[in-house]
Prior knowledge:
By secondary structure, the chain is mostly helical. The protein has helices at residues 11-23, 38-43, 72-80, 92-113, 120-138, 149-158, 168-193, 198-208; strands at residues 52-59, 63-70. The radius of gyration is 17 Å and the shape is globular.
Amino acid sequence: xxxxxxxxxxxxxxxQRGLETLYxxxxxxxxxxxxxxxxxxxxxxxERAPREQVLLRQEGDDDLGLGLFVDGDALSNLxxxxxxxxxxxxxxxxxxxxxxxxxxxxxxxxxxAEDRRVSAxxxxxxxxxxxxxxxxxxxxxxxxxxPELPELRRRLYDEVSFAADLDDEEHDRYRVANxxxxxxxxxxxxxxxxxxxxxDMLPELRRFY
Length: 209
């Protein structure tokens, strides 16, 4: 019998479990098996190289290849500064980066399994909402280790800048997703979080999903 302790699940794995539990979905996939390195991403010769990126490749008529790149320094930082223990300036940006990647991965996997088309705007909007949901739920009911929710919304949706290499269509898509998620997060905050009605917020998040 092997008595060696099992390694703790990675941040990406925990995020996948958390989001799939929240939305009551099951991709039947393990995100870690789809994570690609920077060299693998470079081999794909993508037009852009952001710190988080999902790569899709059609393989035959029915199969879809899926790869997730998340900046290695960000993942290392999250392993050192576990957001489950504390979410602060040391890990906030990297945590949001990881949430975005896992959100994209799950949503694309589900749509592919259902043979359903998904727009890039739909994908980005869900990721923006997932950032708020993950940050808010991660620290509820103990708010002592997180910024106040208005401050959280400000950091997520107001203190943002878009990459300079986005074309006009991409820039508009990110801007619209940010604005719509900001409005929805404000509703969630005022209707549920401010009055500590967190359990009542979960069906609303699932309806939106």
